[in-house]
Amino acid sequence: MPTAEPEPAPNTITFDGEPIPARPGQTVGAALTEAGIRSWRETRKNGRPRGLFCGIGVCYDCLLTINGQSNQRACLAPAEDGTSCESGSGEEGLRDGGTDE
User: Fold this and answer.
1) Which end of the chain is more exposed for a tag (fewer CB within 10 A), N or C?
2) Closest of 36, 32, 35 to residue 55, by C-alpha
3) What is the domain partition of the chain in residue ranges?
4) CATH code for the domain defined by 23-86
5) What is the DSSP string of 27-94?
């Protein structure tokens, strides 16, 4: 039985200046995870790595800077062609009352 080959990713986002392929409909978090990037920031207090955790926008573990806007949830942001993402240390602080241990 033939298996379907995945189609090439038509979108490209950048993460800390490096190109990352992204499929239509993917979030930034999904594209980064699929590319093997599991964490993109560290907590302020203890320097612990953070990336996707809940994947549905409830927690604040996947925050990063997207198109110049800090503290964006990677799990909710669409991975549109040309999206620029930057990792961070959490020094920018959190909004909406999130915690950062």
Assistant:
1) N
2) 32
3) 23-86
4) 3.10.20.30
5) BHHHHHHHTT----EE-TTT--EE--SSSSSSSSTTEEEETTEEEEETTTSB--TT-EEE-B-STT--
pLDDT at 67: 97
Question: Which residues have a Cβ under 8 Å from the Cβ of 95 and sit 6 or more positions away?
Answer: 71
What is residue 95's DSSP assignment?
S
Please return the burial class of 10, using the count of CB atoms within 10 Å of its CB with bins 0-12, 13-18 and 19+: exposed
CB 23 within 8 A of CB 92: no
> Is residue 97's pLDDT more than 50?
no
CA distance 58 to 71: 14
Q: What is the pTM of this model?
A: 0.79
Burial 62-89 (b: 16+ CB within 10 A, else e): bbbbbeeeebbbbbebbbeeebebbbbe
Q: Does position 92 have pLDDT exceeding 60, yes or no?
A: no
